[in-house]
Design goal:
Radius of gyration: 20 Å
Order of helices and strands: HHHH
Largest sheet: none
Helix content: over 70%
Structural class: mainly alpha
Strand content: under 5%
Number of strands: 0
Amino acid sequence: MTPLFVIAYLLVDQLLSHRQTEANSWINSGYNFGSVGGAAGAGALLSHTSPAIITLGVAAVALLSVACAQRLPHPPPPSPRMPAQQRHEIGAETDA
Protein backbone atom coordinates (compact mmCIF):
# COMPACT_ATOMS: atom_id res chain seq x y z
CA MET A 1 0.00 0.00 0.00
CA THR A 2 2.89 2.36 0.62
CA PRO A 3 3.60 3.04 -3.10
CA LEU A 4 -0.05 3.95 -3.61
CA PHE A 5 0.09 6.42 -0.73
CA VAL A 6 3.30 7.96 -2.06
CA ILE A 7 1.78 8.42 -5.52
CA ALA A 8 -1.46 9.80 -4.09
CA TYR A 9 0.36 12.32 -1.89
CA LEU A 10 2.59 13.42 -4.76
CA LEU A 11 -0.46 13.93 -6.97
CA VAL A 12 -2.08 15.98 -4.22
CA ASP A 13 1.03 18.16 -3.99
CA GLN A 14 1.02 18.64 -7.75
CA LEU A 15 -2.69 19.04 -8.47
CA LEU A 16 -4.28 20.29 -5.27
CA SER A 17 -1.62 22.34 -3.53
CA HIS A 18 -4.24 24.78 -2.26
CA ARG A 19 -6.28 22.01 -0.55
CA GLN A 20 -3.63 19.56 0.65
CA THR A 21 -5.05 18.95 4.11
CA GLU A 22 -8.52 18.10 2.84
CA ALA A 23 -7.23 15.92 0.00
CA ASN A 24 -4.87 14.01 2.31
CA SER A 25 -7.74 13.45 4.72
CA TRP A 26 -9.84 11.98 1.90
CA ILE A 27 -6.99 9.65 0.92
CA ASN A 28 -6.63 8.40 4.50
CA SER A 29 -10.39 8.10 4.99
CA GLY A 30 -10.78 6.17 1.76
CA TYR A 31 -8.11 3.71 2.82
CA ASN A 32 -9.62 3.30 6.29
CA PHE A 33 -13.16 2.77 4.95
CA GLY A 34 -11.85 0.24 2.44
CA SER A 35 -9.99 -1.66 5.16
CA VAL A 36 -13.03 -1.71 7.41
CA GLY A 37 -15.29 -2.83 4.57
CA GLY A 38 -12.89 -5.56 3.54
CA ALA A 39 -12.52 -6.83 7.10
CA ALA A 40 -16.28 -6.78 7.67
CA GLY A 41 -16.94 -8.55 4.37
CA ALA A 42 -14.30 -11.17 5.09
CA GLY A 43 -15.73 -11.75 8.56
CA ALA A 44 -19.27 -12.14 7.22
CA LEU A 45 -18.08 -14.48 4.48
CA LEU A 46 -16.07 -16.53 6.95
CA SER A 47 -19.05 -16.88 9.29
CA HIS A 48 -21.13 -18.43 6.49
CA THR A 49 -18.47 -20.67 4.93
CA SER A 50 -15.48 -22.67 6.05
CA PRO A 51 -11.88 -21.42 6.23
CA ALA A 52 -10.90 -24.00 3.59
CA ILE A 53 -13.26 -22.46 1.04
CA ILE A 54 -11.97 -18.97 1.83
CA THR A 55 -8.37 -20.18 1.42
CA LEU A 56 -9.19 -21.74 -1.95
CA GLY A 57 -10.91 -18.54 -3.05
CA VAL A 58 -7.93 -16.39 -2.07
CA ALA A 59 -5.57 -18.80 -3.86
CA ALA A 60 -7.74 -18.65 -6.99
CA VAL A 61 -7.69 -14.85 -6.97
CA ALA A 62 -3.90 -14.87 -6.51
CA LEU A 63 -3.40 -17.29 -9.41
CA LEU A 64 -5.73 -15.27 -11.62
CA SER A 65 -3.77 -12.11 -10.76
CA VAL A 66 -0.47 -13.78 -11.68
CA ALA A 67 -1.94 -15.05 -14.97
CA CYS A 68 -3.19 -11.55 -15.84
CA ALA A 69 0.16 -9.99 -14.91
CA GLN A 70 1.96 -12.42 -17.22
CA ARG A 71 -0.13 -11.17 -20.15
CA LEU A 72 0.93 -7.54 -19.67
CA PRO A 73 3.25 -6.22 -22.39
CA HIS A 74 6.93 -6.01 -21.54
CA PRO A 75 8.67 -2.65 -21.97
CA PRO A 76 11.05 -2.40 -24.94
CA PRO A 77 14.76 -2.71 -24.18
CA PRO A 78 16.68 0.58 -24.05
CA SER A 79 18.20 1.77 -27.30
CA PRO A 80 21.98 1.33 -27.50
CA ARG A 81 22.21 4.93 -28.75
CA MET A 82 20.95 6.30 -25.40
CA PRO A 83 23.48 7.73 -22.97
CA ALA A 84 24.52 5.23 -20.29
CA GLN A 85 22.88 7.20 -17.44
CA GLN A 86 19.52 7.29 -19.23
CA ARG A 87 19.72 3.55 -20.02
CA HIS A 88 20.38 2.92 -16.33
CA GLU A 89 17.36 5.02 -15.25
CA ILE A 90 15.03 3.26 -17.70
CA GLY A 91 16.26 -0.12 -16.50
CA ALA A 92 15.62 0.89 -12.89
CA GLU A 93 12.07 1.98 -13.73
CA THR A 94 11.21 -1.30 -15.43
CA ASP A 95 12.70 -3.35 -12.57
CA ALA A 96 10.51 -1.69 -9.93
